[in-house]
Amino acid sequence: MAPSAQAPAAAPAPPPKLSAAHTNGTAAAEADARESYADEAARYLARAAAMSTAFMRAGELADAPVARWPTSRDLRANVRLALPDAGASEEEVFASMQSMLDNSVNPYTGRFLDKLYSAPRPVGLAAEALLATLNANGHVMSASPMLSLAEEACVAGLAQLCGWDATLADGMTMPGGSASNTLALQTALQRHFPAFRDGGVLGASLALHASGRSGRAARPLLFTSSQSHYSLDKAAMGCGLGLDAVVKVPCDAQGRMNVAELERLVEEAANDTEGRAASAGAPFFVNATAGSTVLGSFDDLDAIADVCGRHGLWLHVDGSWGGPVLFSERWRHLMHGIARCDSLAINPHKLLNAPLQCSFALFRRGEALTANSLDVAYLFHETSDDADAQHSTLSASAQASEARLARREHPGSMAYGCGRRGDALKLYLLWQRYGRHGLGAHVDAGFELAKRVSQLVREGPHANLLELGPQPDELFLQVCFRPKEPSHHAAAVDGQTRTCLLRTKATRHVYDTLRARRRFAVDFAPLPGDLGDFIRLVVHPRTAWTDLHALVAEVAEIGQDFFAASQTA
Amino acid sequence: MAPSAQAPAAAPAPPPKLSAAHTNGTAAAEADARESYADEAARYLARAAAMSTAFMRAGELADAPVARWPTSRDLRANVRLALPDAGASEEEVFASMQSMLDNSVNPYTGRFLDKLYSAPRPVGLAAEALLATLNANGHVMSASPMLSLAEEACVAGLAQLCGWDATLADGMTMPGGSASNTLALQTALQRHFPAFRDGGVLGASLALHASGRSGRAARPLLFTSSQSHYSLDKAAMGCGLGLDAVVKVPCDAQGRMNVAELERLVEEAANDTEGRAASAGAPFFVNATAGSTVLGSFDDLDAIADVCGRHGLWLHVDGSWGGPVLFSERWRHLMHGIARCDSLAINPHKLLNAPLQCSFALFRRGEALTANSLDVAYLFHETSDDADAQHSTLSASAQASEARLARREHPGSMAYGCGRRGDALKLYLLWQRYGRHGLGAHVDAGFELAKRVSQLVREGPHANLLELGPQPDELFLQVCFRPKEPSHHAAAVDGQTRTCLLRTKATRHVYDTLRARRRFAVDFAPLPGDLGDFIRLVVHPRTAWTDLHALVAEVAEIGQDFFAASQTA
Q1: What is the Cα–Cα distance from B338 to A357, expressed in whole angstroms?
Q2: From the CA of A470, how many Å to the nearest CA of chain B?
Q3: Phi, psi of B172 (to 5 degrees)
Q4: Where do Low complexity bias regions lie (chains A, B) (predicted)?
Q5: What interhelical angle do B177-192 and B196-210 show, nearest 10?
Q6: What is the C-alpha radius of gyration for chain B, rounded to an integer number of angstroms?
Q7: Which pLDDT belongs to residue B378?
Q8: CATH class name, domain A435-568
Q9: Where does residue A46 rank: exposed (0-12), middle (13-18), buried (19+ CB within 10 A)?
Q10: By CB atoms within 10 Å of each CB, which of A2, A196, B442, B450 scores lowest?
Q11: A16: closest CA among B38, B456, B469?
C-alpha cells in the first residue's frame, strides 16, 4: 500500500504515481499515466491512417494478391503471435499493426468475391473512427445521446422504406444478421406466448396444452425455406425450440419458398391437435428470405403475408443480404409486401458496403419490443419525463409517440444484450453522403454487373467450358457457375449424377487453384436439386469488369486442365 | 437496361459507368465510381483523426463539460437529424461528423464515472482503425487470417491466466458480456442435455422425465446470486428457460453469493423429484460473479466449484467486469478457483479500457463448443487438412490439438451468430503495448484509487455529510455513497426506513443536479438490504484525484442544500 493512500485525504493531492506504488509497473504504464490521451492518440491515428491508406493503395495495384497466404496452414507456418509479460515500445506495436495488414486479405483489390461483404466505403471508415473515439455505449441514451439519435433516424428512415408508420415502428442495430433474426424470433415468442417470459418454452407448451393441444402438437413451430440462412436453425437451437421445431419449406427451381406448400405444412401441423404425426406443432412464426445466401432469391412476401394473415403468424423477413433493394426504385418490387410484415433484418454492411458490423432489426409495431425488457433498477432509470407521460391525458397516437421516446431512453432494454456499439452511425453517414438515390444507384449497379457476368458465362468466349447454375429470373448479385467438360469429352460423362460428381470435383479443384494463385477469392456452394457444387461469386457494385472477365476465363482454363488430366488418368 | 449490358461481352470492356446507366445516380455516386478508395479514405481518415484528437484535447481541459446536454429532452429540442434523398457533399458530411462529437458525452474529461467503461486507450483506437480498414469477418479464418490468429493468441493467453490447459481451452470474442454469458449458458445446455439440440427445452424436459423426474422437477434450473448481472435473467428468458428457471441465491452483506445457501437450494431443487414444491427442478448451471455491477463483489469461486463438483453442475464465471484482476499478481487471488471453472466471460472493454466492444467467452474444455455448430455446406468447408486429421493415428493430445485447429478454421461455427468483428485485436495490441505486467499495474492503480476515494468519503472533510455504502472488504473500483443529514438535523430523521427514503430522495437530487451541471457523470443504484439508492461512482485508473476530490465535495454540498431545503419545507 502506498503511504499516500493511507492517510485520509483532506485536500486535493496530486494524482497517484503508478511507478512509485507498483513494483511491477512497466515503463509503458508510467508513460501512460503522464501523457495526454490526445497526444498519444494523434500518433496512433496518424500511423494507422498511413498504414491503412498504403494498404488500400497496394490493393488497388493491378497485380496485388488478394491474400498473402493460400491457406491457414501456410499462415501458421510463417507467422507466430505472442503476448508478452513486459510491454513493448510504440514502434514495436506499429510493427505489429503493419504485420496485421501485410498478412491479411486485401478487399481493396476488388477481387475478394468470396462473401456477401467487400471493401467498406471510406465514409464508413470515418464513422468507425468516430465510434472508436466516442466509445459510447448504446444501451442508454444518456451515455450515447447522438449515436442514439442517429440510430433512431436510421430506424425511422428504414421503416419508411418499408412503408411502415415510423411513429409506431421501432428497432435497433444488432451485432449481425443472425442476431437480428434471433431477436425477431424471441420477440415473436414473447408476443405469441405470454408464458414464455417466465415459463420459457415449457410455459408456452403448457399454454398450448391448455388450449386443447397435446403431445408434440403442443410445441411452437417456425417455418422457413430450405434455402434460408442457417441462422434460423441456430436461433431455434439457441432459443430452446430445438432444430426439430424448424419446418423447412421446399423451394421452387429459383430458390424461392413454395408458398402453397408453406400453407399446406402450416395447416398440417396446426390441424393435428393430438400430435399424432411427426409434423404436429403450433405454428407461430414464418421467416421469409429477401436475398438468399447462395442463389440470391427473394421470397414472395405478399403471398406469404396472405398465409400469415390467415393463420395469425408472425412474419419476419431476413433481408440481411437483399434488404437494401428497398433503396432502389427499380428493384424494390422484389420486396413488395414488406409493408405487411412484422419484422425485418437488414445489413447495410453487406450490399451497401458499410463496415462490419452494421445490421438492423426492425419491427413494424415497436411496442412488441417492450416484452423483452426487464426492470433493472441500477441501469434503466425512469426519468421524471417518463412519469409525466404516464400521467398524461394524451391522445392514443401521442401516447404511442411518448411510449416510443421512453423506450428509446434505454434502447438496450429492447434486446437481450446490454452494452451496444453505435453501429447505426455507419448507415447514417453513408445515407447522408449518398442519399437514398445514391444508395439506390449503388444497388442498381450491382444488379447490372451480375447480369453482365451471367451473360458472359453463358454466351461469352468460354461458354463451351462453363455451366451456369440455376438462377432467379431477376438475378441478384451472386453468379453460380462451374467448369464443364469440353464437348469432345461429353461422351465420357454418363448420367446426371456422375456429371454432377465430376463437375463438383472440378469446382473444388478450381477453388483450390484460385486460392493458391491468390489473385481471386471466390467461394463454392452446393446448389439445390442435388446439382453438386458450383463456384459462387458475389459481385459488388465496384467490382471491375476487367477483373470479372479475367476470373471467368481463369475458371474455364483451370477446369479445362482438370478435365484433360482426368481424361488422361 | 443499359445497352452495354445487353450484348454478351466477348472481351474486357471498360467498367460500367453508373452515371450513364442510371438516371437516379447522384453526383456522389458518380464520383464514387471513379475515385480510388485510398485517396478518398485518406481525406476521411485525416479529418476524422483531426476531429477526434481535438475532441480529446477539448475534453482534457480543466473545465470541459462531460456532456453538452443535461437530458435527452434538451438534446432533442436542439438537434434534429435527417436522412436525405439526394447525397450531400463531403464537407457537409464532415460537418455532421463534427456535430456528432460536439453533442456527445466526452469521456476524455475523465469525469465520466457513470459506467463500467471510460475513455479508451489510444492503442485501442489504432486497433479499431485497422479493424475498420481490414473489414474482415471472423466467422471463417480464410476471410480473417490474422484477426483469427490474434483471437487465438488472446484466448490462449487468457486461458493461461486462468490456469487452464491452453491446448484444450478455446473461446472467442462476443459482442458483449451478455452475449458471452448467454453462449456459456447455451453451451452448458447442449452439454448437459444432448436432446436440447433437436428437441429444445422440451427435449431436455423429456429426458429429465425419462430419468424419473416429473412435473416441474423436469425443468432445467440455473443458479446465480441476487447481485449478479441481469444478463443471466435475459439469457434464461432468451434461451427459452424462462425467468422462473433462474434461482437467485442470497448474498452476504458484502454482496457475495452465500455458498451454503447455494448448496441448500441446489439440493432442495434436485431432491424434489416429483416436483411438489415451486422450487423443484434439475440444477445444471451455476453462474458466479467476479466483480458485481453495483458493489464490485467477487463470489468465492473455490467454494462454489466444490458445490458444482459435488452436484455435477457447469460453473460459469461472469467476469465481465472483474475478470481482468487475473492480470494482477496482487489481486488475482480474488478469482482463486477459476482454474476449476468451466467457462468465463471477461470484457477488456471495461476495466482494461479497450474500446467497446471487446468481450471474450472462454471455455476450459473447448470441444464443448462443437455442440453449437451446424454443418453448413456453403460456408464451413472441410479442408483436406481436416480430412487428413480424421484419418490419422495421432496421440490423444495431438488429436485434441488437431481438433482445435480444425475448429479454429471456422470460429463462427462455435457460437450462434455468423458474421463477427475481429474484436480480439484490441486486447492483442493492448497486451503487446503494456504487457501482462503493465495491465496488472493498471488494475492495481484502480484498486488503490477506489480505496482512497472511500477513505475520503468516510474520513475526509465532508465525512459528516456523507454516508458510505456497504462495500466488500477488498474494495473493487466502485464507491457507493450518498448525502446524509448534518448532525444537527439528525433528530428529524426517525427510523431506518424513513432515513433511507429521505437519503434516496437526496441521492436522486444529487444525480439530477450533477447532470444539470454537466461536470460529472455518475450513476445511482439501489443497494442490497433495502438501503435505498446510493450514488455509484466507478473510478478508472486514470481518473484524476483532484476531480474525485471535487466530486465528493460537490455531492456533500448538493446534499446539504437538499436537507436544508427539506428542513425548511
Answers
A1: 32
A2: 16
A3: -165, 160
A4: 1-10
A5: 50
A6: 27
A7: 60
A8: alpha beta
A9: middle
A10: A2
A11: B456
The mean pLDDT values, 10 residues at a time, for chain A of 569 residues are: 36 36 38 78 98 97 94 95 96 98 96 94 98 96 96 98 96 97 98 97 98 97 97 97 98 96 98 96 98 97 98 98 98 98 98 97 96 75 52 75 89 91 98 98 96 97 96 96 80 71 96 96 92 94 89 97 87
Question: How confident is the model at residue B400, as a pLDDT?
Answer: 84
- Nearest chain B residue to A6, by CA: B452
Contact B200 A236 (CB under 8 A): yes
For residues A424, A425, A430, A431, the Cα torsion angle rounded to the nearest 10 degrees is 70
Q: Are A319 and A344 in contact (CB under 8 A)?
A: yes
What is the fold of B163-384? Answer: Aspartate Aminotransferase; domain 2 (3.40.640)
pLDDT in tens, B199-251: 999 999 999 999 999 999 999 999 999 999 999 999 999 999 999 999 999 99
Minimal CA separation from A517 to chain B, in Å: 14
Q: Which residues of A touch B99 (CB under 8 A)?
A: 146
In the three-class reduction of DSSP (H, G, I as helix; E, B as strand; rest coil), residue A205 is classed as helix
How far is residue A204 CA from its own chain's centroid? 29
> Which set of grid coordinates corresponds to residue B531?
438501503
Q: Give whole-number Cα distances, A3 to A17, B139, B259, B381, B450, in Å.
A: 11, 50, 36, 60, 15
Instruction: Please state, in angstroms and rounded to a whole number, the distance separating the CA atoms of residues B146 and B425.
Output: 9
User: For residue A441, what are the contacts with CB-CB under 8 A and spacing of at least 6?
Assistant: A328, B18, B22, B24, B25, B26, B29
Query: Which residue on chain A is closest to B107 by alpha carbon?
Result: A134
Contacts of A147 in chain B (CB under 8 A): 100, 104
- Among A349, A374, A371, CA closest to A360: A349
C-alpha cell of residue B553: 465535495
At B324, phi and psi to the nearest 5?
Answer: -65, -5
Look at the block and give the residue holding cell 432445467: B220
Please check whether residue B203 touches A, CB under 8 A.
yes
Enumerate the domain spans of chain B: 163-384
The C-alpha R_g of chain A, in whole angstroms, comes to 27
Residues whose CB is less than 8 angstroms from the CB of residue B55 and which lie 6 or more positions away in sequence, other chains included? A133, B101, B106, B108
Q: Which residue has the cell 488422361?
A: A568
- DSSP states of A55-86 as a string? HHHHHHSTT--S-S-SSHHHHHHH------SS
Q: Would an 8 Å CB–CB cutoff place A329 in contact with chain B?
A: yes
B37–A119: do the CB atoms touch at under 8 Å? Answer: yes
Those of residues 479-538 in B touching chain A at CB distance below 8 A are: 515, 521, 523-526, 536
Cross-chain CB nearest to B197 (options A243, A460, A549): A243
- For B134-152, what is each residue's pLDDT tens digit? 999 999 999 999 999 999 9
Closest approach of A413 to chain B, Cα-based (Å): 10
Q: Which residues of chain A have a CB within 8 Å of the CB of B65? A: none
The one-letter amino acid code at A531 reads L
Which helix (H) or strand (E) segment holds residue B222: the answer is strand B220-225
Say how far residue B502 (Cα) sits from the centre of its chain: 33
C-alpha torsion angle, residues A516, A517, A522, A527 (rounded to 10): -60
**Does the domain made of A136-422 have the CATH classification 3.40.640.10?**
yes
Chain A residue closest in CA terms to B235: A416
Q: Chain A 391-450, CB below 8 Å of chain B: which residues?
A: 405, 409, 416-421, 425, 428-429, 431-438, 440-442, 444-445, 448-449
